[in-house]
Amino acid sequence: MSQIIATTYEGKYHSSTKSPLSTDPIQVDLKFGPIDLLMGSYASCMLGTVDFYARKKDFEVNGSRSELSYEMSAEGGQVGTINVKLFFDKDYTAEQKELIENSAKNLCHVGNSLNPAIIKNYEFTYGA
After folding, report:
1. Strand arrangement of the beta sheet that strand 65-72 belongs to
2. Among 21, 25, 41, 54, whose CB has the most other CB atoms within 10 angstroms?
3. In angstroms, rounded to a whole number, what is the distance separating the alpha carbons of residues 61 and 77?
4. What does the pLDDT look like over 5-47, one tens digit per residue?
5. What mean pLDDT do residues 76-91 have?
């Protein structure tokens, strides 16, 4: 069954979005806009996806964090490039790092839903 995400446009670039899984709506305005939500969703999805696959292999990535930046395409109106930095507070084995990086790059549902023309640059830092 699909979830309904309801957004109300309140005028003057303000909107409020509610999810059935949360009682608090997300407020969007000119200071924190829709592209910021997209980047936050992508980052949350990557970190959650990495955690899911790490737990299947009996390790955790608690304390991980992300920094995303983006550039709009030359044509405008579309994200052209996303620069992803993922930080992990521990060092991991080569096999664990491979799982982390593959999960983040290839298994995140949000990332897989993005336009494939978007250039994604990844940087992984361990022991940070």
Report:
1. 65-72, 79-88, 119-126
2. 54
3. 35
4. 898 999 988 899 898 888 898 888 888 888 999 999 999 999 9
5. 95
Distance from C-alpha of 10 to C-alpha of 65, rounded to nearest angstrom: 32
Binned at pLDDT 50, 70 and 90, residue 56 comes out as: very high
Residue showing tokens 């084995």: 93
The single-letter code of the amino acid at 27 is: Q
Q: Closest by alpha carbon to 124, among 72, 83, 69, 70?
A: 83
- Contact predicate 101/92, CB 8 Å: no
In the predicted model, what is the mean pLDDT of the chain? Answer: 93
CA 14 to chain centre: 22
* 17: nearest Cα among 38, 46, 45, 48: 38
**CA 52, 16, 22: angle at the middle one, nearest 5?**
40
The amino acid present at 25, given as its one-letter code, is P
Which among 57, 85, 56 is positioned nearest to 69, based on CA atoms?
A: 85
